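Sample pair:
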Amino acid sequence: MNDQKLSEALAQAGIRFHGIDETPATLPVRAAWIAVSCGHSDGRRDIVLDASDADVVSNANLSWFGLATESGLFGGPNREFLLGVDLADDESASILRWAKVELMEDWDIMGGGAAGGILGSGVGKPEFVMMSTNGEVVLRGTTWEDAIGVLAVPMPDRVKLIRDYAERLASNPRSDFHERRSASEWLHRL
């Protein structure tokens, strides 16, 4: 996916695209997705909503924003953060990278964003991963059989499950070169 298509898709969610993040020693997107498997002992905080609720999209948007704010997702006054995106074309293997983004005044993560395919598979069906620009919190949106939710995991560098996954990425010669290098540098900076 090129920058223009990505920018247009993110605009549906009320997110301004600032480019692909090239910061070295950053937790790979694929490892951040594992946050959904973390437990409460890892610091995980969840908000779960009934998918059949008529107001689920608006309630999920409010819940996402509240958790994002409380957990420290947003950096600076412009509400900047990193968003995991897949740069691959439809026929190729996933190319997961962090996009530098900013939350605009009018946004709809769980509705227009999820419907656009970047943040989910349809209105009220979120599937995304976000991380603060300082790497201190991962935020995940996900869909279950009869519920949707958002969860935050602080300090992913201290979470064994995430570190173990990053170690597997770093040591697997079949991992994407960028992910392998990022995982290795992220693990060795700690």
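Helices lie at 3-11, 29-32, 56-71, 109-115, 160-171, 177-189.
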